[in-house]
Structures are given as C-alpha cells and as structure tokens.
Write a structure and sequence with these properties.
Blueprint lengths: L3 H9 L3 H11 L3 E4 L4 E4 L1 H8 L5 H14 L1 E6 L4 H9 L6 E4 L1 H13 L4 E5 L2 H13 L7 E2 L9 H5 L3 H14 L4 E6 L4 H10 L2 E4 L4 H11 L4 E5 L2 H14 L4 H7 L5 H10 E3 L13 H10 L4 E5 L4 H12 L3 E4 L1 H14 L4 E6 L5 H15 L6 E4 L6 E4 L7 E3 L7 E2 L15 H13 L2 H4 L10 H20 L10
Length: about 500
C-alpha cells in the first residue's frame, strides 16, 4: 500500500526551481499531517517540516548539558523550526518551555524556584529584559539570564510603543477626556518601560490578544462613561472596532454571549468612547493583506480560516465571515491552536486550515495535531495546514551582485509589499547560538558568556509601575472583573 507521501509525490515533489514557480503562482505552500507522516507541499513548507524530526545527536548534546548544569530554556512560539524541533525533543524535566510572552515571564520564575541555576530566553529583547527584571524583583538577581545572540533583537510592534508618537497619542487622549474617566489598554507584547510610561499618563491595564475584547467589554460594563484607549497595535485596534460595530447589528441575545451586561445600546455607547493608536503593527501580521486574502478566497473556500487579532482588516474580515459559518476563529496563537486541535478531535473527516499567524507555531501545532490524530483520528484522516505566504516573497542572496531575488529561502517568506510570514527578529535565535551558549556554560567560559548575559537596565521604580497593568489583567482573568485600583492614577 502506498504511503501518503508517495500518493502526493507525483504532484508536489518536482525539481525545486519548477516546484516554486507553480506553487507560488497558484497556491500557497502547506503541510499535510497524518497520524504518522508529515507531507510538505512547496519549498516553504518543506523548510518548516524539515526539522520536525530533529537530529538526535544535537538533541542529546543540548539535553545532557541542560540536565547537568540545570539550565532552563524559555522560548516563544515563533522560534525557528530547527530550534523548536530540537528543544521540544529534550527530556530535561520542566527544563524547556515554549509559549507566548506572558507565559514565558511567569515560567522563568517557576523554573528558577524549582531549582534551575540559569535561564536561556529565546525571543526578542524585551522578553529577555522582562525575564531579567521580574527575576530580580522576585529575589533571583543571582540567576543569570542569557540570550543566544550578541546582536540586538528588536520587535517592530514593541518599538512602536517606545516612540514619541505613542506617548503623544496618550497625552492627546487624556486631554480630550478632560474630567471624564479614562483608561488605557496596552498590549502585553510591549516592554516594561513602555507600560510604565503609559501608566504615568493614564491608568493602564495590560491585555493579550486572547482577552482584549473581553477586557474592553468589561471596562465598559464597570465604567459605562469611561473613555477606553488601546495600543500600540493598529490592526488589533481596528479589528476591535470592527467587532464592536458588528455587535451593534446583532440581537441583544447574541451580544450577551460575549458579555451578559451588554446590549445594542451599551455597545453603541462604548464605540463613542473607544479609540486606538494608528501607528504600530507587527511585521509578521502585516503580511496578511489584500493579495493573500484574494488567493485564499479563490483557492481555499473549503478551508477553515484562523486569524490572529493582529492581522490587517481584509484577513480579519474573512475570518469573521467564516466564524458566522462555524468555519473560523480569531484570537491569540493559543486560541488558534485550540481551535484547530478541537476540530481534529470533533471530526473523522480530513480538513484544511489556513494558518493566519506566524508560521513558527507550526512545530507545536503539528506535534499536537499528530498526537490528536493518533488518539482520536479516523483511518487515513489528515489535517492540511496552509501557510498564506505572499506569492511575491523574496529573500536576500549571498551574492552581492544579486541582492534580493525571487523565491523563499530557508523560511523567511518576506514580501516586497512589507511583512513576513516568519518573524525575522525571532529567527535571530538559532540552534547554533543556543549550542554555543550551552557549550560555554558547560566549559565554564565565564568571561565569554558575559557577552550573552542580559543585564538589568530597568529600575525598580519602573518595574513597579509596569507590573501594575499586568496585575490588573491577572486580577481580571481570575475574578472576571477589574479592581477599582486599576482605574486610578
């Protein structure tokens, strides 16, 4: 009997130069997942699938040192496929953790409390800086935090909140509010100094892409006359406004499914009090614009659509349309992950799903899908995960005469229109970088390690101010309402 890979080989495993031309011009690359196989379609998917079964020699090399030296690894979902493949195969108990930025900071403290002597944070710089500051605050200043690169690792969205234009937006909104109550929602993917700066101007509450809509609705329920600002992600702000306008067209019975205290009248009032910052976005989610959506509509009408809350309007609108047909979801990376896994559990049929977020989460997603299909799936059931990479994706050539050339190399998937399906900042964390740090720790190269160690440059005063918005959010997550102190300067 032919394997699934053999069945697909005639259509999709052609020479690379011809294969890219056909898949890029017509359809997006994808990864077909069965209970026992990964079948990539197109070079971008091949790159993502290449490291789902990692080199066991490399795994053992890293894992042995993690155990011996009690090193914890704390990584974001958007890591490079090779790096994620290796660290997820490590067996050090509680030593490797992959999640979003909020959970990463929490886990760092838990890992250290459980006995780990150092932490390698694989993410952008504000994540490692947050980990360092929070560990210091918890009394673990003696526990070193390491990056895997000596170069700065930025974040286009977090940096938007550090610019004067964001501060000016907050000051303007405060002035407009006058004596009326006002609160600012700040996205969790920002630095501690940005949160502290916002808190200095307007009472500020942190939010995630998973709870941002609930946060807005709850603030309006507790403080009906309160002006609500949101930033710095412009796409998420616009998408929030779109969702609120959509709710005003729904019957009260439907609105109460989102929040029991609201109806058409209260949502309409909320809209008059809502504003969002219009000059910030994530370079990854910026990718999902008109051309990508046109391709999805033409070629993937039968697929489930997932969209991160940070995607541009056209992709968000498409996902909203699919939600009305029970064929889509919008939310955080965790929301997307749970949606796909629940679909795999609830049907015996094969299905397709468009991954409307950073492609780095395919490592975790594919492992969970395969596990689900083994436990719940029907015979020959598959899930095809589609990567909506722009057809004009480009890459940088090593040949200086060529510069930028057509085609997807490795896994960048960056578009000439702007945006990347794979975060170029996150991909500065590499398996070679982690290996180098692990080897230096194993060999006791203290002086060389200092180049990779994260030094706390955030004062206790700023940390205290920045933690208040986070504590307000956590209070809401636990108690389903915000504390009164969250609305006070």
């Amino acid at each position: 009997m032919q394997s699934l890979a053999t069945q697909f080989s005639k259509s999709f495993f052609r020479p690379a130069n011809l294969r890219f031309l056909s898949t890029a011009a017509q359809k997006f690359p994808s990864l077909i997942i069965s209970a026992n196989e990964y079948i990539p379609k197109g070079p971008y998917a091949e790159r993502q699938a290449e490291f789902l079964k990692p080199d066991l020699t490399t795994v053992k090399k890293i894992d042995d040192v993690l155990k011996q030296k009690k090193i914890a690894v704390n990584a974001h979902f958007y890591m490079d496929a090779e790096l994620q493949g290796v660290i997820t195969a490590c067996q050090t108990p509680n030593g490797v953790f992959i999640a979003d930025s909020l959970a990463m900071a929490d886990q760092c403290v838990k890992q250290v409390k459980s006995g780990f002597k150092s932490v390698a944070v694989l993410g952008v710089d504000f994540m490692s800086a947050n980990a360092r500051a929070i560990l210091d605050k918890e009394g673990f200043a003696n526990v070193p935090v390491y990056k895997t690169s000596t170069k700065p690792i930025g974040c286009s969205l977090a940096e938007a909140a550090e610019k004067d234009v964001y501060k000016s937006y907050l000051l303007t909104e405060k002035r407009k509010a006058g004596n009326k109550p006002i609160v600012n929602l700040i996205y969790i993917n920002t630095s501690l100094p940005s949160k502290a700066m916002a808190q200095d101007i307007i009472p500020t509450i942190s939010c995630t892409s998973a709870n941002v809509l609930r946060s807005v609705l709850q603030i309006a329920a507790q403080k009906p006359d309160c002006k609500i600002c949101y930033g710095p992600d412009s796409y998420m702000g616009n998408n929030l406004e779109v969702m609120l306008k959509h709710l005003t067209t729904q019957p009260d019975s439907e609105i109460k499914k989102y929040h029991p205290a609201h109806n058409q009248k209260s949502i309409a009032k909320l809209l008059t009090n809502f504003s969002y910052f219009k000059n910030g976005n994530c370079v990854v989610h910026h990718m999902f614009g008109d051309k990508v959506v046109k391709n999805i509509r033409e070629n993937y009408d039968d697929a489930y659509i997932t969209a991160h809350f940070e995607v541009p309007g056209p992709m968000f609108k498409l996902a909203m349309e699919k939600i009305q047909k029970n064929s889509g979801t919008v939310g955080s990376t965790s929301d997307i992950l749970n949606f796909i896994i629940n679909k795999a559990k609830s049907t015996d049929e094969s299905f397709k799903v468009v991954l409307g977020t950073e492609s780095g989460m395919i490592t975790k997603l594919s492992q969970m899908i395969q596990k689900t299909l083994k436990e719940h799936g029907a015979k020959n059931q598959t899930v095809e995960v589609i990567f909506p990479v722009s057809s004009d994706a480009v890459t940088v050539s090593n040949d200086k005469k060529l510069g930028i050339v057509p085609g997807v190399r490795g896994g960048e998937g960056c578009s000439t229109e702007g945006g990347c399906a794979s975060c170029p900042y996150m991909k500065m964390n590499t398996i070679d970088g982690l290996l180098h740090v692990v080897e230096m720790l194993n060999e006791g190269k203290t002086e060389e390690l200092k180049k990779y160690e994260v030094v706390n440059k955030i004062s206790d005063d700023i940390v205290d101010k920045a933690l208040k918005p986070i504590f307000a959010m956590r209070y809401f997550q636990k108690n389903k309402e915000f504390p009164e102190w969250a609305f006070q300067s």
